[in-house]
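Quick question, first post here. What does this chain look like in 3D?
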Amino acid sequence: MKLAGIVDTDKARAKELAVKYGCRAYSDYRDMIDHVDAVSIAVPTTLHFQTSMDLLKNNKNVLVEKPITTTIEEADELISEASKKDLVLQVGHL
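> Answer (accepted):
Ran it through. Tokens below.
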């Protein structure tokens, strides 16, 4: 596995970490979608659903930090999308 990129809304921080880890820097996750196979999502919980769904719809495997979403209905939608596309959707417990 190779780290392809780091996304942070603080572009300077993204660049700093990208240099440290030898990968690309992005300030918007949508800009990296075509350059990755899987994504680890560590954003505020209120953004878990939309971010995860965008990535699943673009055929990306997703590791999202707990809780998976803010509602059971959203969690069910993510599970359904991942299952439909035979993608990995995993919840991290760090």
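The helical segments are 11-21, 48-57, 72-84.
The chain has a mean pLDDT of 97.
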